Amino acid sequence: MQDFTRNATENNSTDCTINHSIHQTLSPTIYILVFVVGLPANCLSLYYGYLHIRAKNELGIYLCNLTIADLFYIFSLPFWLQYVLQHDNWTFDADLCKICGILLYENIYISVGFLCCISIDRYLAVVYPFRFYQFRTIKAAVVVSIIIWGKEILMSWFFFKNADISKDAESHIICFEHYPIKDWEHNINYYRFFAGFLFPFFLLLFSYCGILRVVRKSHGTQKKTKIQIKCLVSSTVVIFLVCFGPYHILLVIRSLFEKNCMFAEKIFNIYHISLLLTSFNCVADPLLYCFSSESTYQNFVKLRDSCLTCLRCLRTKTKVSYQLKTPETLRKSNSVPTDEEPELLNKLHTVTEMKDSSIASIDRL
Fold it and tell me: For this UniProt entry, which segments traverse the membrane (predicted)?
């Protein structure tokens, strides 16, 4: 820890004295909420993606990759929670700071990449169902996923080599942040805005506008289904703007105007609120792409029924083993010939199965 502190002093020392109170009030609440809701939701989303892959649907590849990226971010939240509760003082290893920072920031662009893949896949499926079929295969989805992960891993390596820890005026070790921002961050922020937000947003808008145009002209689609599609498309675009828009706009503003500590202090709270908004993407993704369809509900009902069946089987086996090992059963077994024991066990299983079937019928009611 002493080496870590000394390296922080040698690498960078900032004179900015910024009030971090927002990190002790709002940030822990958001991180806990996203972790508690996002972890089970994304685990179920991963199962949903697996069902798509098993059905030979390329959409499952994109959903699984999107969910894995969200889970990586969720697993980093306990470290960030400890960081903000320590008044923005990183007490872990320096490399762990860089890894958690990469998971925090690069998750945004991995998610954006796969959100674009899902929108393009839906656009081709609706507008050109037969023309571009070769791009809508499992193999094509795997290749695209490798490209997205490879690009972001290269970016992550760049940040891992260039990002360093710093110390504020209160001798707190600041992780993955600089006030004011460094010179090399300006071009990176412009790249993030144009290639990581603006271009994907127009791609998303183009894809979903094309889908809505085809759905509007379709005479075979029911009115209720059209309304559901419109709600899903509009919700996707709005959530994309709310989660990623403010953060990227403020990135550009910081790159243009943040030259001193005075501006950094003024923009600190609103910038970190925008960064917290990106966390809600981990909760919104499963809701939009998995839990909004009726087929998902049916799949989870089947999963629930299979789990209940397994529990009932285990309960039945426990009852049978307990009854066979009681002293009364042992005394009775001594008076019964050995060749009649299997017949008695079969009767016992029949009785328990009748009980279970009656319980299942009541549950259905």
Answer: 30-50, 62-81, 108-128, 140-160, 193-215, 227-250
Alpha carbons 281 and 236: distance in angstroms, whole number: 10
Sequence-distant (6+) residues with CB within 8 A of 172 are 87, 88, 89
- Both 333 and 248 in one domain: the answer is no
For 46-91, write each residue's pLDDT tens digit. Answer: 999 999 999 999 999 999 999 999 999 999 999 999 999 888 888 8
Residues 210 and 350 in one domain: no
325 CB contacts (<8 Å, ≥6 apart)? none
This prediction has a pTM of 0.76
In a domain, 298, yes or no: no
With H, G, I as helix, E, B as strand and everything else as coil, classify residue 252.
helix
Q: Give the Cα separation of 103 and 110 in Å (integer).
A: 10
Q: Which domain holds residue 321?
A: 303-364
CA distance 49 to 289: 10
Say if residue 223's pLDDT is above 90.
Answer: no
Q: Are residues 222 and 348 in the same domain?
A: no
Same domain? 336 vs 188: no
The total number of structural domains that make up the chain: 2
**What is the reported pLDDT for 348?**
42
For residue 297, being part of any structural domain is answered with: no
Q: How is residue 361 written in tokens?
A: 């019928």
Exposure b/e, 11-45, CB count within 10 A at least 16 = b = eeebebebebebbeeebeebbeebbebbbebbebb
| Same domain (yes/no): 335, 285 | no
**Cα three-residue angle 111-116-119, rounded to 5 degrees:** 125
Say if residue 140 is in the same domain as residue 190. Answer: yes
Phi, then psi, of 55 in degrees rounded to 5: -85, 10
Q: Identify whether residues 269 and 308 lie together within a single domain.
A: no
Whether 87 is covered by a domain: the verdict is yes
Q: At what angle do helices 59-85 and 94-127 cross, to 10 degrees?
A: 150
Any alpha helices (H) in 128-260, and if so which ranges?
A: 138-162, 183-193, 199-217, 223-257
Do residue 250 and residue 348 come from a single domain?
A: no
Tens-place pLDDT, residues 8-37: 444 444 557 777 788 888 999 999 999 999
What integer pLDDT is reported at residue 313 of this predicted model?
72
